[in-house]
Every structure is written in C-alpha cells, then in structure tokens.
Design goal:
heterodimer, A: alpha+beta, FAD/NAD(P)-binding domain, Flavocytochrome C3, Chain A, domain 1, eight-stranded mixed sheet, disordered C terminus, B: alpha+beta, Alpha-Beta Plaits, two-stranded antiparallel ribbon, elongated
Chain lengths: 530, 134
C-alpha cells in the first residue's frame, strides 16, 4: 500500500555529497525539492567515511590552464577542457558557501583552508545546508524504480520507507540521480549501499552509460577492515616469510597496484609503516580517527607491527564510468532525468584515469549544482505534469519476466564479486576471461530478471543485487568492446593505445546489452562553460 | 562489525537506528535499546558510535566476521565513545579545534609518497623498475 504519495518540483535520489549539492542547487533556483536516500544523509556514501579534497585552483587564468593541461595529459583524450574549467570555477565559488555549517580550519600559513574536508563533518554540514535551503530530506527511503511519462521522460520515483515499512511515491517535474557508483560489494569503506541502484533505474528507462570499462581501481587497507589511506603511502611490503617485496612506489600508480596485486595473488602481503612520516604518527588520530580504530581494537600497533593488507575494489566509485550526460545541465539521455557525482560518468573531467579524490569531489559538487539547477529550470518550465499518466519502470527483482521462483541472490552477488574484483581478471583483462565473466553474470541476471518477485523490505536487497549485476555486465561488455589499453582499462591481450580508441565508449540495454563508440569528438559536446 | 549495544548505557534515543546508513538496527519492540537486526549489512564505518550520545555502542575491528569479545572488558577499556571524542563531535558550531590539523592530510600523503619514491630509487640505482606483468 502506498502510504506516502507526494508531489514536488525536483526529486533527488541519493544521499551523499553529489545528492546534497544537487538538492541545494535546485533549491537555490527556486524549486521545491525532496531528497530520498536509501540510508541517512550525513553517513551515507563514500564521502561520509572519507575526507574528500576538492580540486582547488585559484581563478588565475595561467594557474587554471596549467592545472587543466596536467589533468588533460592523464585523460588519454577523453576529457573535456571546458568541463574542467567549469568544475574548477564552480568548486572555487561554491565550497566556501558551506562556512557557517562547516568549521573550515586554518592552514600552516594562517589562511582559511577550504579544499580538504573531513567526511562526517562535511556531510553533517551539507545536511544542515540542504535543510536550511528548504530541502525535504527523507532518510531510509530507498528508491526502487523510476516512474515514466508515456513519452519516456522521468515523472518521479517509487520506493519503500524501510524504517516504517511502507511504500512511497513521489511525482516530480524533474529527477536527479545521485546514487553513487557501484563498488561490486567489495567491502570498500562506505560503499555497502553503492550497488548501482541509480544506474539500474536509469538503465530501465533507456539511459546510456559511458566509460564503464574504466572500473578497475583499488585501495590498500588492512586485510580485516577497509579504511582511508593516510598512513600507508610510505609502506614497505613483505611476504609471509618476511622477505621484502619489490613494489614500485605509489607515485608509479598502475605499476604500484599491479605489483601489489601480483604479490597478493601469490600469497599474503604484509605492510610495515615504520618509515611513515614521523610527524604524522602522533596526530593521525586527530586527522583520521576512524583509520586508527580498526588497529587499536585488534591490538595492532599501526606504526610498529607488520600487518596483512589487501586491495579493496572501488569499481565505478573512483573508476570513472556512469550515466552519460548530454548537456551542461547533466541531463541523461532520458528527458527530465539528470545525473550527478559518481552515478554520472566522470570522463568529462578525468577521461580514462581515476583522477583520485580531488577532481572526483569537485565533479560531485559541480555536477550536483548543475543537475540541480537544470532540474529546477525544467520543473519550472514544464511544471510537475502530475495530471499526466505515468507508469513504473522497474523490472528485475520486482516484476519477473517469467514465473516467480526462488532465486539465489547470495550466489549472484558472489558471482559479481568473483568476476569484477579478482585481481588477475581486473588488472590484466583478456577477451576470453571477459567472455567467461559475461556468461556467468548474464546467467545470474537472467535468473533474477526472470524469476525474482521480492516483497516488502526484501525488494531493497533484490534491487541492489540487480544493480550490482547490471553495472557488472555493462562494465564487462565495455571492457570487451574496448580492444586496447587506455588509462584504468588494461588489456593483457591488447597492450597500448589503439588509434581508434580516443573516443568514449557507450553502453546500455539490460536484456540485450549494446556498446558503441561515441561519434563526436569529446570537445564538441560541451561548447560553453558556465 | 557491529558487536554490542550496552543496554544499561543506552538512553533509548534511537539515533543509531536513523544514523546507520545500512539499516543494521531495528527499533526495539518493547521500547528499550535498539535491536541489532542485520549485522551482515554492517560495513564497520563506526558512524553509529559517532552518532550515539550515550557512548553505548561497540563496533568490532573486523568487517568480515563477528569476533568473540567480552563486554565488560570493552567497558573497562575506555574505548566506548572513542570515536566521538577523537572527532570532538560535540564541539560548538564554529569551533576550529576539531579540524585544526585537517589541512595536513594532503602534505602528509605527499610526504609518504616521497619517502616511498626515494627508497625505491635507492633500491634501484640502475633506474627502470621491473615489469609488473605476470
């Protein structure tokens, strides 16, 4: 039974930093905004457990151009300089607006320090900022599916209020998808909810995705608990016999992670942090309290004892792929549906590389502001269209294509983890292993889509499983179609860049997945910067 | 992984039920401390501890499995509330103390990376690193 049935101008789906900035952006443009999140705005998502730095360059044309040049070099031809310029400008202008909600500290030179913020405090501040902007926040209201007008445009969403165990439905003039990336249930800190729910919902509405092949990136952590990474860059590494491993330094980027992965495939790997910066040791707790806890509570002396480490997959979180956006408002190929943050492709800023935290956070902020503003404008222009009919678009896990039957969801998630996170499959992709992965993932998808009819609270988990499978299949199809090695996407059977590969690769479809290269050169897509 | 709610410390505010992003807790059917209903969904993010004003929650270190523990030893260890104290979570708005050292994160990451790079160079005076391909 639908217990909450409301209308609004803009509906934001998601609860991390991109969702919050989108809601604030839409409210700033005069829209009535409702935000629904699966979890709690403040603790949801990978920002809340992290400490995002934002790409931060003063508005000096020379400095900006140099920063963009540098970033462009690692994009492998897939980024867009106009978007980079816009991201730098919007971030520079907008982040300080959080003053009053967030206590920006002072740096060593006595200047207010804006770009780096601590996750829990940042998300608490964004929650307050959104609420003070008039945004209605509905925590623990996971969206299960989009509602679509007969013309295919977004009409709202429906979901389940999991604390009160009741259905909800929101009709809206425009919808922003800001549900984060998909980490393929790797255990990465903060990513449990990041199961590609938004990708799935948008995909069911016909949205295109882009850059899904750039999904192989990992973070080092103690083997028993994923943490943030502040103490680890200076680590030395040892095997189980105590022999030091020859691991290129973190600056070597790809070679660093490949060497660690190779060693971990051979046996357990131990880190030794005794050479970490001396000044860091006594104050790590003041900077990243949650990084200290898993060591103290296990009785491991972080800077003295050797401890086992592993690589936690980040999937499309620090990988770059996501929903394709086709205009400056971050509208997807579904009219009235906008995308922000990790749910959207970040290729516009980082191309084929991860970019690390700082362009990613700046992108989340900027795409949030852009999507919120665009959604608000559309809702004002077209109205809420609540007299038009609409229909729910959700399929897998909700409305089985064939007869309802029991489905092994745990097995499906295990398949996603095995095919997407295994180091050998991710770091050294090959056509034949990608094909084998697809067979297994497609079988699991088929079973779920054909037979799973979840009810009540179980729908949330069933849709998470469907989202994991959908994003895993799109990433694998894209990896198979890009027969070259570019940035994060490394094919052992196709080393080096292909002359035809300097274009974005699109993917979409759920029953039958399609891939094709984008025709236009990336630069032609966004003409003007804000 | 979520380990324990100390019922005698819990004030029944249910902040953890709301704050947990992954729906680990249910409201108590009898009005007491919340119930740890879905520990398999716990991601060991410590957010429930941070949001618990009564310091009544303990999250174990291992995210992959529950570990044996002694509630009274935990209570005596002083670890309860550690997350809130380390964050200075309840400092008044505008207080710069909680995030005073935060700007040093970037420089420390850079310093760590430099240490590793310099060490690697010492260990490989001839230059080229060996291939990481299997």
């Amino acid at each position: 039974m639908t217990q909450l049935d409301i209308q609004t101008d803009v509906l934001v789906i998601g609860g991390g930093m991109a969702a919050a900035w989108a809601a604030i952006g839409a409210a700033r443009h005069g829209a009535a905004v409702t935000l629904v999140d699966k979890g709690f705005v403040g603790t949801s998502g990978v920002t809340a457990t992290a400490g995002p730095g934002h790409w931060w360059v003063p508005p000096d044309p020379k400095l900006r151009e140099a920063a963009i040049d540098k970033r462009d070099q690692t994009s492998f031809g897939l980024a867009d300089r106009a978007w980079m310029e816009r991201v730098l400008e919007v971030t520079w202008r907008t982040l300080p607006e959080l003053q009053g909600h967030y206590a920006f500290s002072v740096d060593g030179a006595g200047q207010t320090y804006y770009p780096g913020v601590r996750g829990p405090e940042y998300m608490r501040a964004l929650r307050k900022f959104a609420q003070s902007s008039g945004v209605v926040i509905l925590d623990h209201h996971p969206a299960l599916e989009l509602l679509l007008h007969p013309d295919g445009s977004a009409a709202g969403a429906a979901g389940y209020a999991r604390l009160t165990r009741s259905d909800w439905r929101v009709r809206a003039g425009a919808v922003v998808m800001a549900t984060g990336g998909s980490a393929f249930r790797s255990g990465l800190i903060g990513s449990h909810n990041n199961t590609g729910d938004g990708h799935l919902m948008a995909g069911e509405a016909g949205a295109h995705l882009s850059g899904m092949e750039f999904s192989t990136i990992y973070t080092l952590s103690p083997a028993w608990c994923s943490t943030r990474t502040l103490p680890y860059p200076a680590a030395r590494f040892f095997d189980a016999e105590g022999a030091e491993l020859d691991i290129p330094p973190p600056m070597a980027d790809k070679a660093h992670h490949q060497a660690l992965a190779k060693a971990m495939l051979a046996g357990p790997v131990f880190a030794d942090l005794r050479e970490a910066p001396e000044a860091l040791k006594p104050i790590l707790r003041r900077i990243q309290p949650a990084t200290v806890a898993p060591f103290e509570r296990k009785g491991v002396n972080l800077f003295e004892d050797r401890f086992q480490v592993k690589l936690f997959g980040e999937g499309t979180i620090r990988g770059t792929g996501g929903l394709r956006v086709i205009d400056e408002d971050c509208q997807t190929t579904v009219p009235g549906l906008y995308a922000a943050g990790d749910a959207a492709t970040r290729e516009l800023v980082v191309g084929a590389s991860s970019g690390g935290g700082s362009p990613n956070s700046a992108w989340a902020l900027t795409s949030g502001q852009a999507a919120g503003a665009g959604a608000a404008r559309l809702a004002k222009t077209r109205g809420r269209r609540t007299l038009d009919t609409c229909a729910p678009a959700g399929r897998a896990g909700l409305r089985p294509a064939r007869g309802a039957a029991s489905v092994d969801e745990r097995g499906a998630i295990a398949a996603v983890q095995a095919e997407m996170l295994a180091y050998d499959k991710a770091f050294w992709r090959r056509g034949e292993t990608l094909q084998a992965s697809l067979l297994r993932l497609n079988d699991a998808w088929r079973e779920l889509a054909d037979h799973r009819r979840a009810e009540g609270l179980e729908r949330v988990g069933a849709r998470e499983t469907a989202g994991l499978l959908a994003t895993a299949r799109w990433a694998t199809e894209a990896a198979l179609a890009r027969v070259e090695s570019r940035g994060l996407h490394q094919r052992a059977d196709a080393p080096g860049l292909s002359p035809q590969g300097g274009r974005r690769l699109l993917v979409g479809g759920l029953e039958e997945i399609w891939t094709r290269y984008e025709e236009a050169a990336p630069e032609a897509l966004v003409e003007a910067a804000a | 992984m979520i380990a324990h709610i100390f019922e005698d410390l819990c004030n029944g505010c249910d902040a953890c039920v709301s704050a947990c992003p992954t729906h680990v807790f249910d409201l108590s059917p009898t009005g007491g401390a919340p119930v740890i209903a879905r520990p398999d969904q716990c991601q060991t993010c410590f957010m429930c501890e941070l949001y618990c004003p009564a310091d009544a929650i303990y999250v174990g270190a291992d995210q992959t499995r529950p570990e044996p523990f002694d509630p009274e030893a935990i209570r005596a260890s002083g670890v309860l509330g550690q997350m809130r104290r380390d964050h200075l979570w309840d400092a008044p708005a505008g207080d710069l103390e909680p995030l005073k050292e935060y700007w040093r994160l970037g420089p420390f990451l850079g310093e760590g990376a430099q240490i590793a790079a310099a060490r690697y160079k010492r260990q490989h005076p001839q230059g080229d690193p060996p291939s990481a391909l299997p």
